[in-house]
Amino acid sequence: ICRIAVLASGRGSNLQAIVDAIAAGRLQAEIVGVFSDRPDATALERVAADRRWGHAPKEFSDRAAYEQALGDALAASAPDWIVCAGYMRILGADFVQRFNGRLVNIHPSLLPLHKGLHTHARALEAGDSEHGASVHLVVPELDAGAVLAQARVPVLAGDDAQTLAERVLAVEHPLLIATLELLCAGRLAEREGQPTFDGHPLFSPLAL
Ligand code: GAR
């Protein structure tokens, strides 16, 4: 069974989608831990207390010590895949290297468009006619790893950042579950930093 660890900073609706997909028997997986930089994150409450790790970076002497502790806790949970699902802190290169090839992130834009924050407002400002979400491999450079899968939504007249965010979030959940199904089944994989699908190099993101 596929061991999934989740990094989350806030609400955890993507985490809840994983919890629900496992409960429904759709995703053959187990959530081995939820890890947060915010001890009060709602996300932590979505799993049993013995699977929660919530510690603020300020509890540690510096960022390296924080990421060492986070990484040690994560490693102890022996995950096959580590999903950043609304984890709002940039991971350092040492951390990314430690879990290289097992880290994915869900980002609320059609990468390579709109890396970083405020993606919905920026899609509107840019006049984009469509927007969406991407699941990608994590590399040290922010939101720059190979994109595995994307889901698209239209930008509609009258949208504001909030309405657009809601439309994107509604496709994030099925996108993340479909991607995790493929990752857990070994159909979608990472070899030397490049994604493969059924053993073949994946040149463009799966449209899910
Ligand atoms: C999601 O929209 C996710 O794509 C985004 O934060 C939200 C978390 O929602 N992630 C990022 O912006 C990462 N840079 P959730 O806590 O309800 O899953």
From TrEMBL:
<feature type="binding site">
    <location>
        <begin position="12"/>
        <end position="14"/>
    </location>
    <ligand>
        <name>N(1)-(5-phospho-beta-D-ribosyl)glycinamide</name>
    </ligand>
</feature>
<comment type="function">
    <text>Catalyzes the transfer of a formyl group from 10-formyltetrahydrofolate to 5-phospho-ribosyl-glycinamide (GAR), producing 5-phospho-ribosyl-N-formylglycinamide (FGAR) and tetrahydrofolate.</text>
</comment>
<keyword id="KW-0658">Purine biosynthesis</keyword>
<dbReference type="InterPro" id="IPR036477">
    <property type="entry name" value="Formyl_transf_N_sf"/>
</dbReference>
<feature type="binding site">
    <location>
        <position position="105"/>
    </location>
    <ligand>
        <name>(6R)-10-formyltetrahydrofolate</name>
    </ligand>
</feature>
<comment type="similarity">
    <text>Belongs to the GART family.</text>
</comment>
<protein>
    <recommendedName>
        <fullName>Phosphoribosylglycinamide formyltransferase</fullName>
        <ecNumber>2.1.2.2</ecNumber>
    </recommendedName>
</protein>
<feature type="site" description="Raises pKa of active site His">
    <location>
        <position position="143"/>
    </location>
</feature>
<comment type="pathway">
    <text>Purine metabolism; IMP biosynthesis via de novo pathway; N(2)-formyl-N(1)-(5-phospho-D-ribosyl)glycinamide from N(1)-(5-phospho-D-ribosyl)glycinamide (10-formyl THF route): step 1/1.</text>
</comment>
<dbReference type="GO" id="GO:0006189">
    <property type="term" value="P:'de novo' IMP biosynthetic process"/>
</dbReference>
<feature type="domain" description="Formyl transferase N-terminal">
    <location>
        <begin position="3"/>
        <end position="179"/>
    </location>
</feature>
<keyword id="KW-0808">Transferase</keyword>
<dbReference type="InterPro" id="IPR002376">
    <property type="entry name" value="Formyl_transf_N"/>
</dbReference>
<feature type="active site" description="Proton donor">
    <location>
        <position position="107"/>
    </location>
</feature>
<dbReference type="GO" id="GO:0004644">
    <property type="term" value="F:phosphoribosylglycinamide formyltransferase activity"/>
</dbReference>
<dbReference type="Pfam" id="PF00551">
    <property type="entry name" value="Formyl_trans_N"/>
</dbReference>
<dbReference type="GO" id="GO:0005829">
    <property type="term" value="C:cytosol"/>
</dbReference>
<feature type="binding site">
    <location>
        <position position="63"/>
    </location>
    <ligand>
        <name>(6R)-10-formyltetrahydrofolate</name>
    </ligand>
</feature>
<dbReference type="InterPro" id="IPR004607">
    <property type="entry name" value="GART"/>
</dbReference>
<feature type="binding site">
    <location>
        <begin position="88"/>
        <end position="91"/>
    </location>
    <ligand>
        <name>(6R)-10-formyltetrahydrofolate</name>
    </ligand>
</feature>
